[in-house]
Write a structure and sequence with these properties.
This protein is of the alpha+beta class and 112 residues long. The protein has a domain of 68 residues: 2-Layer Sandwich (Ribosomal Protein L30, Chain: A). Helix content is 46%, strand content 19%. It has four helices and three strands. Strands 2-1-3 form a three-stranded antiparallel sheet. Helix 2 packs antiparallel against helix 4. The longest helix has 18 residues. The radius of gyration is 26 Å and the shape is elongated.
């Protein structure tokens, strides 16, 4: 090692300051969870619903078809459960896609 390299090592600070984290008895609360609910209507095509479930919720074709059929038969179906921010973002994405294509497809949120 050269003398220059030794000098570089000497320039490092060796402070004795240490941050100590104190243990707290405070428990963190799990966030509330919300179901995104898909609602059936008489105008939105089944193909479009499956397309939206695949693109927005990343569902495989078979699972998206199953969710769509549950909504068709029962009037509504739970798509997925998320925290509030994610749930309302997904719903907004669905509504924007539906509006852009001229469909009245709706989703809502239900607290779990």
């Amino acid at each position: 090692m050269s003398d220059e390299e030794d000098d570089d090592d000497d320039d490092r600070e060796t402070g004795d300051d240490v941050d100590v984290l104190e243990k707290s008895d405070e428990k963190l609360k799990e966030p509330d969870m919300y179901a995104v609910v898909l609602h059936n209507d008489d105008y939105t095509t089944k193909e479009f619903v499956v397309e939206v479930l695949a693109s927005v919720f990343h569902k495989h074709y078979a699972e998206a078809t199953n969710i769509m059929l549950r909504a068709h038969r029962n009037g509504k179906a739970v798509v997925e459960v998320y925290t509030w921010d994610i749930a309302v973002t997904k719903i907004d994405q669905v509504h924007r896609k539906a509006k852009a294509r001229g469909f009245p497809l709706r989703c809502s949120v239900e607290k779990q």
